[in-house]
TrEMBL record:
GO cellular component, one term: cytoplasm
Protein name per its UniProtKB record: Tctex1 domain-containing protein 3
Single GO molecular function: dynein intermediate chain binding
Organism taxonomic ancestry: Eukaryota, Metazoa, Chordata, Craniata, Vertebrata
UniProt xrefs under PANTHER family: DYNEIN LIGHT CHAIN TCTEX-TYPE PROTEIN 2, T-COMPLEX-ASSOCIATED-TESTIS-EXPRESSED 1/ DYNEIN LIGHT CHAIN
Top-level lineage group: Eukaryota
Organism: Latimeria chalumnae (Coelacanth)
C-alpha cells in the first residue's frame, strides 16, 4: 500500500482518488451531518492501522476520517433582553409562595433558619419559569418573630438603574413576619 493518503486500491490496482470523489464524499458527509450541531471542516482518507479497533470497519483497510469543528455562533449585538423584567409578575408569584408556605407556620428559630433557604430557592425557581433572559436573580428571605419590635432591612449595591430592578414582598401571620427581597440584575 502506498504512503500517499489520496490513493485507494480498486480491482487489485492502486489509483489516485479523483477530485470529484473527494468533493462528493465531503458533500455527502456534510448533508448527513447537517442536523448535527457540529460542522464538518475537512475529510481525509486514513490508514486504519493507526486507528483504535472500535473505529475499524470490517470491509476495508482504508476509511474516511472527518475533522469536526465546534459550532461558532455569531454575535447578536443585542443590548437588551427579549423579555424584560416585570416586577408585578414576580411580586405576585412570590407573594403566593409566601402565603402558601407560611400561612399556618408558627415561629421557631431553628426551623425558620432552614425554611428561609427553601423559600428563597422556590422563589428563584418560579422566577426562572417566567423566562426573563439575561437576568441574574438574588433572593433574600427574612423571617422574624413577632414580639412588638421593629425591623429595618437595608441593602446596598452598584447597578444600572435603567435595567436592574428590585421588589419586596411582606407576609404576616400571628406569630411571624416575613419579607422577601428580590433583586434582578441585568447580565449582558
Amino acid at each position: 500500500m502506498s504512503d500517499h493518503p489520496k490513493r485507494v486500491k480498486s480491482g487489485g490496482k492502486e489509483r489516485r482518488l479523483s477530485m470529484f470523489e473527494e468533493e462528493s464524499f465531503s458533500a455527502i458527509l456534510k448533508e448527513r451531518l447537517k442536523d448535527v450541531s457540529n460542522e464538518v471542516v475537512h475529510t481525509d482518507l486514513v490508514d486504519l492501522a493507526d486507528e483504535p479497533e472500535d473505529f475499524i470497519p470490517e470491509s476495508s483497510s482504508l476509511a474516511w476520517k472527518t475533522s469536526v469543528a465546534k459550532v461558532k455562533f455569531a454575535n447578536t449585538y443585542r443590548m437588551e433582553p427579549k423579555k424584560s423584567f416585570q416586577s408585578y409578575v414576580v411580586k405576585k408569584k412570590a407573594s403566593q409562595i409566601l402565603e402558601e408556605k407560611l400561612e399556618k407556620i408558627k415561629y421557631n428559630a431553628d426551623t425558620c433558619r432552614q425554611f428561609t433557604l427553601s423559600l428563597a430557592e422556590e422563589i428563584i425557581a418560579s422566577i426562572k419559569e417566567c423566562g426573563f433572559d439575561r437576568y441574574k436573580f438574588i433572593v433574600k428571605v427574612f423571617i422574624v418573630e413577632k414580639k412588638s419590635q421593629g425591623i429595618k432591612i437595608v441593602s446596598r449595591g452598584l447597578w444600572d438603574t435603567s435595567k436592574d430592578e428590585w421588589t419586596a414582598i411582606t407576609f404576616e401571620n400571628p406569630s411571624l413576619f416575613a419579607t422577601a427581597v428580590i433583586f434582578s440584575v441585568y447580565f449582558e
